[in-house]
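SECTION: protein entry
WANTED: fold as tokens:
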Amino acid sequence: MNKPLSPITRRALLQKASALALTPAVAPLGLGLMGMANAAAQTAAADYKALVYVFMNGGNDCYNTVVPYDTDNYNRYFALRKGTESGIYSGIAVLRSALASTVLGTQGLPDGMQMALNPVMTGLKSVFDAKRAGIVMNMGLLNVPTSLDQFRRKSVPLPLHMFSHTQARNWDYGSVPSLGWGGQMADLFLQDNAKASLTAISVGGRLGFLGGEAARGYTSSASGPVAVSALVSGNLYGSVACADVLNTLIRQPSTHLMEAEYAAATRNSLDLRDTVLNAIGTTLPDKYKAWFVSGSGLSASLQMVARLIEQGAALGMERQVFTVSMGGFDNHDYLVANHPGLVGSVSTALAEFDAAMVGLNMAQSVTTFTGSDFGRKLTSNGDGTDHGWGGHQFVMGGAINGGRFLGQSPITGTGHGLDVGGGALLPTTATEQLSVELGRWFGVSDADLGAIFPNSRNFDLHRLGVFRV
């Protein structure tokens, strides 16, 4: 039996493979070297687990997603957002009377505090009430624990690109700016999956999140794997002969190293398409039509994730990382017109995905979590809200310590010790704190988590209690 590589040796070996993969002329060679990663990967438990990352592009307004409901906090929220009444809104503030049906339990909140979801988010409320979803309060990018005074004096290292949409990259890469943390976790389990190239999958999601040292994100559309249309149809530029030539060029052997590697990478992509299609089939099973009924783009993406998860055993998978995303959350204007539809779609799609995982008996094996560029300011700019910092995010799954609020819930208002300006919240939980708990549940060792998230050593870890013990 070969002696396992130490973590240091393993990382050095993977870094060499990654260095080759990052060179454009030899990118497929890097893919071919995935076998090197397999030889050194971390061993997974003999049970399937998947992480599903749902990203809301643009910076979601957390205050109109998770809305203060107790009298004191609501009054401060309303005073800063009120205006002309229209439907269930006054200015950009949700009327308190409209929140009665989505008030949440108070477990994890300070005494006297109550929160409600946006009135359109009844689907996610049901999952929360069933204790398969939780809310991480005031989470954001941090390098070290930071006070308001330290932020103002810039006496501690602050995240790059503060209040900029570029911060979305920081959610993907964590402390290592060139590698996605989902991909780095995938690196560790490549050898446990019969199809290593299907360890990290994007269905309209953020590919940077999946870029590890050896792992590379495989891309599928919501309707199925992406194809080389000429080879599927057997027709290139109206010619069957041209399609045959293309197929021959792709599949013929070559003694030239680069040609052989490029051909191998292309064949791998084509073979993966066939593998995925054979596993999920070309006809949508009726049970998925019953689970996913909303028809939104996010719903369609999560439906494809569910189909791939169901076929994990048939594909020989033990660990997988998925990413999906949805745009439209940069609501400087038309917040009342646009935001309810956005968070309503997120709520419904997540509830549909939860129903699918329960129906497939996979709820305990799949954990879903949300992210967004940043939270937004509490103050109204007239028709919307401007870029902030900390915000509230969701975690969901059968293993979640659900039905509760996780982390520290700040008072609603301005001028307090967490207000960096206009109600933009200084985060009290770092994104890496959640990431580390997700990674530990996924089966990543503490030593590897420290390597993937170097800044995590600056925080009190494993204190959120995201998962049931």
Notes: DSSP finds 18 helices and 15 strands in the chain. The CA atoms of residues 174 and 388 lie 19 Å apart. Residues 1-45 have pLDDT under 50 and may be disordered.
